[in-house]
Design brief:
The chain has helices at about 20-35, 40-45, 50-55, 55-65, 75-90, 95, 100-110, 120-130, 135-140, 150-160, 170-180, 185-190, 195-205, 210-225, 235-255, 265-270, 280-290, 300-315, and strands at about 140, 145-150. It is mostly helical.
């Protein structure tokens, strides 16, 4: 027996107060997004104009000049197909991440903190829908090619205003902000045949604890072009394999036992006459990486390593005597 699904009523009720309407819209829309098959309902909401009533930014995304985009109906078509692709990938995590899909699924079903009632999956879907929202105002032709320089950062800032109707809390807003802000980062890694450990570790350090969501958003972004055949099947396969390896390395590091600290920042500052600053964290990170690889195991070897890297670090952080 088939159960007929009905879409929740999101039309504002004139007899209710503005506050009641706001929370009805939020609750009903979040219920839709919680479904593993929410794309069909979101599409219906878009077709009847309800989605644009909730998020007026969508009107601007639809008006964006189509000559700037691969999708024939422009930016919002790309955004929706990214959303749609994400749901398909989430259903087949075992296909894309055969070694880690159970841990990934468990992680995604969790709330981001005790103050949140929204799953990470719902917030990830919102990021997918609006990840490129700032492309229209950042589009520029440079050397004959259209570029969207800074659209990630600008779009992340705009997302706070766009998502106001959902009355997200501070942690939830930051979660979506960070995903949009960094949504191009995984592509710079996964488009390569080999991801170096150094590059992967830097990515994990910068993105954690959103590594899983960030990688999934990147793959969905690529898959939104599948139907248009912008990327060859070989390119897509390489990107997916790189993404799977990235997640595998992430869980390997995450599940390792904490390393015993063999040196601290105070010792480094005293030994090398350094002031407090981000360079101390940089040196400690270098020590930790070598320690994990079994290259060093005591304070003496750590100091020798730091001494060999000191000129490089001083140059990077522009430390003058």
């Amino acid at each position: 027996m088939q159960i007929k699904q009905t879409m929740p009523n999101l039309t504002p009720n004139p007899q209710e107060s503005a506050v009641e309407n706001k929370f009805n819209i939020k609750d009903e829309l979040l219920k839709i997004l919680s479904s593993p098959d929410s794309a069909a309902s979101i599409k219906k909401m878009d077709n009847n104009g309800l989605l644009s009533q909730i998020f007026p930014e969508i009107i601007l995304m639809k008006k964006a000049d189509n000559k700037f985009y691969y999708h024939p109906y422009g930016l919002f078509q790309h955004s929706f197909e990214t959303f749609e692709s994400l749901e398909k990938i989430l259903k087949r995590l075992d296909k894309y991440f055969p070694k880690n899909f159970k841990d990934m699924r468990k992680h995604l079903e969790e709330k981001i903190d005790v103050s949140s009632n929204i799953s990470k999956i719902v917030l990830l879907k919102l990021a997918a829908l609006f990840h490129d929202n700032a492309k229209p105002e950042t589009a520029k032709k440079i050397n004959g090619k259209i570029r969207f320089i800074g659209h990630e950062q600008r779009g992340a800032r705009k997302s706070k205003e766009i998502l106001k109707p959902l009355a997200l809390n501070k942690s939830e807003k930051y979660f979506v902000f960070k995903l949009i802000f960094n949504h191009m980062r995984p592509s710079t890694l996964t488009k390569n045949i080999i991801i170096t450990k150094r590059a992967a570790n830097r990515f994990f350090r910068d993105i954690d604890p959103l590594v899983i969501e960030q990688v999934l958003l990147s793959i969905a972004d690529w898959h939104s072009y599948k139907r248009l055949k912008i990327h060859s099947s070989k390119e897509l396969k390489r990107q997916q394999d790189s993404a799977a390896k990235l997640i595998e390395d992430y869980f390997f590091l995450k599940n390792q036992k904490p390393i015993i600290k063999i040196i601290d920042g105070h010792k480094i500052m005293k030994e090398f006459d350094l002031k407090p600053g981000p360079w101390i964290g940089g040196l400690l990170s270098i020590v930790a990486q070598k320690q994990r690889l079994g290259k060093i195991n005591d304070e003496k070897s750590a100091l020798a390593l730091i001494s060999s890297k000191l000129t490089q670090i001083k140059k990077k952080y522009k430390i003058t005597p």
